Amino acid sequence: MGQEKSSYLTLLDLLVGVYQEFSSAALLREKYVQRFLQWAEPLVRQVKKTRISRDDFDILKVIGRGTFSEVALARMRNTQQVYALKIMNKWNILKRGETACYQEEQEVLLKGDRRWITELHYTFQDDNYLVRVTSHNIKPDNILLTADGHVRLGDFGSCLRLEDDGLIHSSLAVGTPDYLSPEILRAVEGGGGYGSECDWWALGICAYEMLLGTTPFYAESISETYAKIIHFKVGSLSLPFPPGSEVSEEARSLISALICDRSERLGSRGSVDFRKHPFFTGLDWSSLHLLPPPYRPDVSDATDTSNFDVLDDCLSDTESLSDVMERAPVGLHLAFVGYSYTATRLVTLHQHAVKRLIAYKIKVFVCITYVCVLCILSCINVCYILLLYIH
User: Fold this and answer.
1) Which domain covers residue 20, as residue numbers?
2) What's the CA gap between 245 and 242, in Å, rounded?
3) Does the annotation place 86 within a ligand binding site?
4) Which of 8, 29, 155, 295 could form a disulfide with 142 if both were Cys (CB 3.0 to 4.6 A apart)?
């Protein structure tokens, strides 16, 4: 069911994407493109009408804003269920493609352990935006709390895919500056790749901040922060635990074992390193997600945003893909084919209607797949073949 559902949603993305590409000014003058668009327009209109969209939600509050996206608390109109919507500007993503890890983020949300990451319900798109619908949780920041106090990780926008050698080779420092490990910064300067050990460094920074209220390498400028990180060496520059700070020896040991050289860093053998560390003595790891949390946030109802820094009541208006299509390269809409997703338990009547539509028009979708490829190669005359096949 999951694979079948994913396939028909991808075909819908493909149909709409090809239609949008052929609607650009550069191609619209072609006679056979015009004929194809005339035929396809009712089908695309019906698809857009039956698919989930932003019109199915009422925006309550904007609770986050970043380089590529905004996060809003929203209520689904037909169910009254409250969700968190992450709304990503397609044009901003395309302009900064190497640092906009939206595909990797979605893969983590789909394949990750549901006990510890925020739950993904829907993803969909329109002409200008990608939208991700997840469970509404309580902040702070990227580490969220559920209403009953359990931790969820909620933002994977800085994820990068490991290559075949188990490393990441990137010339960009992807992530928040204070949490970047030395090996990431060296890789930016051409110093080889890095692996998942960089995440254990970031965990150490996070633990330090939670206990002391600031990050250990904070500086007034990013360049100063990077310099502190890259030149940090255990022994010559010890971690700055302020005198009199109430940090246990076990906590100091844990943090020091995370913020250290990658070859000695805790986590190299996986979770077993943490299970054996004195800081976690007595912890029942197998039942961790079932234990009562030490703190439960005070939440009045599903629309309570008192734990968030509410930014606005409405989304911002920024330059979108539609604004630049006349000067944009061909094929931009095709970059987002395959993005749409609906959790199996949430497949509704309108989506079953779309599936019946797909079955009825299956031969058309096969043709469109070929058109998509040929369109990229600027073989516009293939539209004539497509129209002959349809009729």
Assistant:
1) 2-150+311-390
2) 6
3) yes
4) 155
